[in-house]
Amino acid sequence: MAYKVKELFYTLQGEGGQAGRAAIFLRFAGCNLWSGREADRATAQCPFCDTDFVGGDKYADADALAGAVAALWPKGGGGQPLVVITGGEPGLQLDEALIQALHFWGLEIAVETNGTISLPPGIDWVCVSPKAGQDLETVAGDEIKLVWPQDGIDPTRFEKMPFRHYFLQPKDVPGDSAAQAAHLQACVAYCLTHPRWRLSLQTHKILGIP
Ligand SMILES: C[S@@+](CC[C@H](N)C(=O)[O-])C[C@H]1O[C@@H](n2cnc3c(N)ncnc32)[C@H](O)[C@@H]1O
Ligand SMILES: Nc1nc2[nH]cc(C(=O)O)c2c(=O)[nH]1
Ligand code: SF4
Ligand SMILES: [Mg+2]
Q: What does the entry list as the binding residues for substrate (predicted)?
């Protein structure tokens, strides 16, 4: 199968339970909850997206893509190579052939998903970030990372699902510092009154790295 990839880059995982860990990012093009066009944002099922996932390059098959990913890991530095597969929505393109090819290169595989599309088996770390009004296909995994606040979602709903970690991540609104501050305070207040939940900051944005 051919894959449409917006970008490949090497950085630190900025969010969630693996924040601070070096990782190669594989960002797939396309999402099922927004076209990616600004003109459609207001009517999108997921209107607060912080990511450009339109366009990019085609890879002819799993071996070609996995080889390009593996080539980004620094030689001789040690550590367990990690790829974070994101998007857009990775559930649209991620398949068993790509999982196998990435594992062949010794990569640990983490996925960032909105949870609405079933994923192939074999992923090492599954992060589900639920979106208001969207039913979940993936109801178990390593972490829930809920962008907060979001109207129409009660976080306690996810506590019945077997995830290892529960994170709230402040909803970023570029250019609106009052909203940013309010969203951060809402997350802090919720974590203090519901201690099962932990704060996930987007540390790459704080650091100014990709
Ligand atoms: C761009 S999404 C791609 C993966 C997948 N489509 C998803 O939504 O989980 C990567 C992560 O960024 C989060 N995110 C998107 N927009 C955000 C924003 N404005 N503020 C904070 N987190 C955001 C998503 O919820 C998700 O956890
Ligand atoms: N550094 C960094 N960490 C991230 N964790 C999840 C990201 C994403 O866009 O899925 C992301 C991202 O875009 N950059
Ligand atoms: S589901 Fe993920 S990629 Fe799609 S619009 Fe929402 S945050 Fe962006
Ligand atoms: Mg991001």
A: 12-14, 27, 86, 210
